[in-house]
Amino acid sequence: MSAAATTSSGKPRILTGDTPTGMLHLGHWVGSVKRRVSLQDSHDCYFIIANMHAYTTRVEKSEQIRRDCIEIVRDYLAMGIDPERSTIFLQSEIPAIAELTFLFAMLLPFNRVMRNPTLKDEIKVKNLGETYSFGFPLYAVGQTADILAFRPVGVPVGEDQVPHLELTREVARRFNQIFCGVSDQAEDDDHVKLGGVLPIPRAEIGEVGRLVGTDGVNKMSKSLNNAIFISDPANEVEKKIKKIFTGRQSATEPGDVNNALFQYVNAFHSDKARVEELKRKYSTGDNIGDGHIKVELAAELNKMLEPMRERRKKYEGNDAVILDILKKGTARANDLAEQTLAMVKEKANLIAFPRALGFR
Q: Strand order in 13-18's β-sheet?
């Protein structure tokens, strides 16, 4: 474990977060947030609200993006993120990230950035064609700065974000090789020990790397209207679960236990023995219909979501509390990012003068 990626308490540091594109859904929970909650006592946790990245495709909707930032923090609190044990902060209020983005862009060939499969998928899914802004591919570089500014050992992510993290790992290796004299043959875990400024962070995939949406085809997403949100009331959860399409015709027809419906059963049913029983009956056509399973699944989901909905109610209509959490977290995050920036500038032979940032 690298000293650069631990706090004074000796806890390893992690960094992850979300682009504010709307309230969080079940895909966020099983893909990353559930793991974040579990790591709060054992790790030094930094959670970024990447609001500048939202501008890459929604620059004309700045008021909505601001609202989404606040709603995401409400969802964090509802899901169990504790601002006393974790640092929640705004990307746009960390000047070091923008400076590091510009420097890190010099370390990546343009065609390497554009080969990022996640970028290609987003261009296709969002139907951007050739109309996307220059900032859209730049955000892939910006994500490397989002992460490396905090020198984490790990990044809890969904499966679709692994290509972004690999780009981050490439930047960290290249910086350490060019400016810190680390051999290109060095093992990733040895970079800091050998004099590198930036640890090579590893991906920590959640329980479900990619949760399919209720359309049964695409990844769960607000923009595709196939998401079940953490804040959805019980009747809305039931309604959305009923929409999951399997193509099965009758309760006596053998079903595919790898279909979308059973992705949810596997991910959210609390009784694993019951899951195996459902799989056996479903795969053999033992008189169990999709409708029965959907009712049972909706009940399980609502049992899990009800405490989250109750916690969220405490923060409804009180933006001042949310903004205070963000202000305090951003102040802590700025301290660490400024340390990293100073270290990077020194190694990169950039002339720099002492500076201090603060909030009034």
A: 86-90, 44-49, 13-18, 154-157, 202-205
